Amino acid sequence: MKRILFFLILVSGFASLSAQDLIVTSSRDSINCKVKKVDQDNIYYSVNGQDAVIPLIKVKTCRYNFFLQKLPVANEDLQPAEQEKPEPLVNKEVAYKHFRFAVDGGMGYRSFYVGSGLTTKFTDYYKKLKWGFNVSADITYFFSEKRGIGVKTSMYKASNSLNNACLFFPVDGVFYAGFIESGKIGDDITIIYLGPSYTTRLSGNLDPGSLLLTVSAGYTRYMNNMVSITSYKVYGNTLGFALEIAYDYAITKNIALGIQGSVYGGTVSSLTLKDSTGSASYDYSESLLRFDLGIGIRF
Predict the structure, then answer these.
(1) Could you report the per-residue pLDDT of 169-179, keeping only the tens digit for each?
(2) Residue 180 has what pLDDT?
(3) Nearest in space to 247 (alpha carbons), one of 95, 141, 102, 60
(4) Residue 120 φ then ψ, to 5°
(5) Percent of the chain at pLDDT above 90?
(6) To the nearest whole number, what is the mean pLDDT of the chain?
(7) What is residue 90's predicted lDDT score, i.e. its pLDDT?
(8) Which residues, at least 6 apart from 217, have a Cβ–Cβ distance to it below 8 Å?
């Protein structure tokens, strides 16, 4: 009877040491504790009798019964207690969201060539037309912590105008038979991109930040409400691509701020010109290569 009582005292005295759990945070800190409860948001645990809680977004792994200790033998005549078998290893990589929705806005710069034979006034006009603003929206589904697929869309706008510009108009393609006319010129350019995307999370997992690389190929539409003494609508379609690198910094569990740099490419080889008399298509090559820099919010 005394042996049994002594054995129960030993079991109760070392119960807290027989099975200790391990929590490893995203910042590589280790917490030796006893996990009491895990829900979809937090892990509840105790250390030396003190209860604590840690958000799942800050947890890299959680291992049950990581520290196992044998109970000491009270007497040589007593049979050693059978060592408790450890529970299966739990490696909870749950600290990533499956969906990422990003909205950004910022500046864009097109790299089209400005001819060397233009006057200073026209050279300055086209250089200013290179600069515009952009807005973009991306939605991505991460099927693993590092990889996701989605849809990328963006809109770029740039405009400029010049009054009292002198323009030369050839007659039937004959330059020496042409005439000069003075008036307003202007360009109001819109470029829209839409395509599927593939995203790789290069580092981090919103604790507190993550670096992402996105590649995409899709549809590009070019539109220009152009004025050259009279008004025209010019538009064309082409296949384009996008390459983007972004950094997201979490400010709450569900919201992050981000900054991104993007490169969009494509070349329009055929344009349609429409005015009050009708429309006509003609071959014309124009590069749509541009560089965007934007900031925004992620959900």
Answers:
(1) 555 554 444 44
(2) 58
(3) 102
(4) -60, -40
(5) 39
(6) 80
(7) 42
(8) 195, 196, 239, 240, 241, 242
